[in-house]
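Morning!

As promised:
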Amino acid sequence: MAATTKKHARRIAFPYGETAAHAPVLANWLVGLRTEARALIADGLPSPRVEAWKYTNLQPLAERRFAVVGDVSPDHVRHAMAKAELGRSAHRLVFVNGRLEAAFSDLAALPKGATVRGLGDVLTADPAALAGLIGRSEAVRGHALAAYNTAFFSDGVLITLDAGIALDRPVHLVFIGAAGASPVAFHPRLIVDAGAGSQLALIESHIGEAGAYWANPVTEIAVGHDAMVRHAKLQDETMDAHHLALVDVSVGRGGRYESTVLTLGAALSRHEIVVRLEGEHAEARLDGGYLIGGKQHCDNTTRIEHLMPHGSCREVYKGVLDNESRGTFQGTIIVHKGAVKTDAHQLCRALMLSKGAEADAKPELEIYADDVKCSHGASAGALDPLQMFYLRARGLDEAAARALLVEGFIGETIEGIADEAVRGYFAARIAAWLALHAAGPA
Amino acid sequence: MCRPLARRRARIGRKGRPMVERNAEARAADNAAQIDALVNEKYRYGFVTDIESDFAPKGLSEDIVRFISAKKNEPQWLLDWRLKAYRLWLSLGPEEPAWAKISYPKIDYQDAYYYAAPKSTGPKSLDEVDPELLKTYEKLGIPLAERAALAGIAVDAVFDSVSVATTFKDKLASMGVIFCSISEAVREHPELVRKYLGSVVPYADNFFATLNSAVFTDGSFVYIPKGVRCPMELSTYFRINAAKTGQFERTLIIADEGSHVSYLEGCTAPMRDENQLHAAVVELVALDDAEIKYSTVQNWYPGDAEGKGGIYNFVTKRGACRGRNSKISWTQVETGSAITWKYPSCILQGDHSVGEFYSIAITNNRQQADTGTKMIHIGKNTSSRIISKGISAGRSSATYRGLVRVLPGAEGARNHTQCDSLLIGPNCAAHTVPYIESRNPSAHIEHEATTSKISDDQLFYCRSRGIGTEDAVALIVNGFCREVLQVLPMEFAVEAQKLVGVSLEGSVG
């Protein structure tokens, strides 16, 4: 009977939440938010019996015991920084194990009307600046993993743009994970408030330097009327890391949110995006690619809510799976009552290079309005032997042919990155992965 | 209200009168009037036949399970099986599965009868059948004897729980085909029943299947021997009649090696004020090179415009393609019931086996349908095809929920899934929830889904040629459903097209 209970349990015990050492002292007004979050994590992590976590089992995370984050040598940081060379100028903030390293950051040349501040500073010096921007939505407050972030965050970033401000350089956030002998956990909180008509390119590089750690970033983005936020994320954690991210976005009238997520690293990762199109003519584009091997597990979960008329969204998620890896896509598009003239399209595809890999997809449409155009497509399969034959017949060897086809397949997911240098930064990562994986026999 | 399709086609074919430009408001008012007219339409089959039932006491207990088993003179092993199921069901607590997108008041399982049988049991011929029953069928448009003679269909009609008439038995028997009620099969062919009952849907499968296993009262049993192509389409008409009698049919169809059978299931129910629970289980087994085609037209009472009354339809249907090259094909037209919870599935065990699922689900007023399929690919080179058409109108909700799972050994598996939803009116909802799980790289899985309303362009095109809005909608939706309608057997195609038409009249948004 006990075994049955365990199998059907909706929660996995996880003692992390009981360790007070992880929680820094906070401004009073944030205490309520923390209390709410601590209540949510009291029962532990969600098990695969919870529908939203059906395909991702957090048991490996629950079995980890975390030490308090210690110092990392500057050499280590410099070594990791070489992997996050964007190839163009940017406003840069560097975090090591979740803590801001001012020495490596560069915030000169920020125009008036734009602020980029470390959240640690904001929490001590000016916590009121976060009012109304943090823990805004139910999607964040009710989220089982984001609750750990809310309960324990101590650093991160606050980016604000006044109305009409367009940053000519991207803001580049570099997160370096460098754990020692014991695993560490960090919970960066990223807050973005893009005012009406403003424009922001936000790039996140999650670079794994060493060891096992749990990165649990939560990002909250408010895109104002007619504003545009372009968000690109590279996740290249160590193969022992767990990376569980939630991005919560609200888009105002005429605003646009674009996201590109490229996943290469982490033993277990999930990138979850919740977008609410709250104004008329709001738009979202979500692209994602993942290239995984070994026993990696990669989960992309998206939820787009159309709340007002004339909204549109486009989603393309593609994954390449080698060895015994497992890729999961869960994408929900919700069209609420009254959100007529919604135009929503979603595509998810998985390319399986090896026996033993597993691809799961759950593309969901939830429609409560009639005058809409919504569609989704999903596919899973191996490389097309006809295409292979075509390339081989033209003199390419098998490895080159495979690499070319895989590159063509996954390349679409980064095409949405507008900045050429940044796109090259992502493309180089794909090429490096292919050199290791697609070239060899399955 | 229900005009035959042929007549409509004739109307559509007529030369259109010159179109008079009318403003949008007038058109909207016109449409609203039509919607009202249809919403107020009474359920055509809403009448009650007064036949004294031989009730077991109300409620569910171990004694009731024993009572049912004793009533049917069942052997000990079956009673034991029922009791195992009942005890498991008790341990599940009164918690129905909650994952489907449906909501309904809590079902009181103690407030229903679990056994009701028409008084005159075991007629030997049509002459012995209670004339009241025959009248009921006639009102439904199923003159049993006539239909059997003219259409060549053997009808095992289920009126409440006991089979009352079986035709064409002799002809089928001469070919070795067994087609009888499951109770009779338990008595006459216990070895077959014991071997296959619960082998596809085990008693512990799910809440409703477990309940069914404990209290099933009747249903059909079909066995097609090796190499036999069943000479006629087998058909059962279900009809819920006695007040507060849940129906718990159990159907078992076995197609032995190289055989072929087509089975038709159709249902209507009289008007009721209280919701009635229906939890059937259908099990299909196809051995090497065998083929089973299972077609359903479900038109039970859906409740009134406010959702009062109507049947709760919680059905577990599953087919096992056990043999090489076997094939199971499900086709369903779901227009009735207040709640439809139904996922006809295929377990593709045999190499090269084929599973198909064709579905039309139409919901109106406050109906809720959560339906779809599961295709489990186990054998090599197995293939499956899913075509689902959901149409929701009024304040209804239609959900497609499907699973395609490819296991590591299913080399070369293929699946194609297409689910389209059509929304009619601003207050309905349509959802698509597919699960795709592939664990073999050589498998090819494709899924596509669309949701939209009836195209204004198509409507305008038809209207500008003189076709009335109502006819235009019927025309467009018939086209929308065509891929499914055309795989229905002839006998069902007409009824199904009629149903589609009736359900869609006045559904212009």
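Chain B has a mean pLDDT of 79.

Hope this helps with the figure draft.
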